[in-house]
Amino acid sequence: MSDGAPDSLIPYDEIVQEALRAVVGRVLGQIQSGGSQLPGAHHFYITFKTTAPGVDIPGHLRERFPDEMTIVLQNKFWDLNVSDTGFSVGLSFNQMASKLVVPFSAITAFVDPAVDFGLQFQAVDAAGEAAPHEHAENDAPEPEGAAGVSSDNDGNNVVTVDFGRKK
Questions:
Q1: What are the backbone dihedrals phi and psi of residue 68, each rounded to the nearest 5 degrees, phi first?
Q2: Position with higher pLDDT, 59 vs 137
Q3: Which of 46, 48, 91, 103 could cross-link to 86 by cystine, CB 3.0-4.6 Å?
Q4: What are the residue boundaries of the structural domains of the chain, listed by start?
């Protein structure tokens, strides 16, 4: 008998990725409905694959960022429009106004440093499938008695999702 977990016929990883990307959409949607004003010190770093299907950015940005790009939504952005599948926003790059269209499936990271919140996603390739990734060094089983949700002394909230461990 094998020690590893059996292959799941349910795509849990894809379902979780989709649900977490919906968090980004909901947050951006709240900003849009609030007049595109960020409350308090909130600001967002959004990293996305520039070659992902549906991404529409000016050619000079695609040349400068041929694989991945990080944008900051803080003080100077306009025309934020959020849909079920992605968002568009106006930003200035070297004093050149640009409109960017980014599907949620292209996003690889979303961070709000004001509250120490961040999400990372698997990259999606041109065929719309998650790109293979190496396992992180911290992908070891949790010690016995470890909780799935914990709050560190430094204020970080850690959520652990482990589909392979049997209880």
A1: -145, 150
A2: 59
A3: 103
A4: 16-131
d(CA 91, CA 44): 13
* Secondary structure class of 56 (helix, strand, coil): strand
Enter the tokens of residue 139: 């992908």
- Distance (Å, whole) CA 107 – CA 48: 4
Strand 44-49 relative to strand 107-112, pairing: antiparallel
For the stretch 87-133, pLDDT in tens is 999 999 888 899 999 999 999 999 999 999 999 988 766 555 555 44
Q: Count Cβ neighbours within 10 Å for each residue of 101-131 and write b for 16 or more, e otherwise.
A: ebbbbbbbebbbeeeeeebebebbeeeeeee
Phi-psi region of 60 (alpha: psi -120 to 50; beta: other; left: phi over 0): alpha
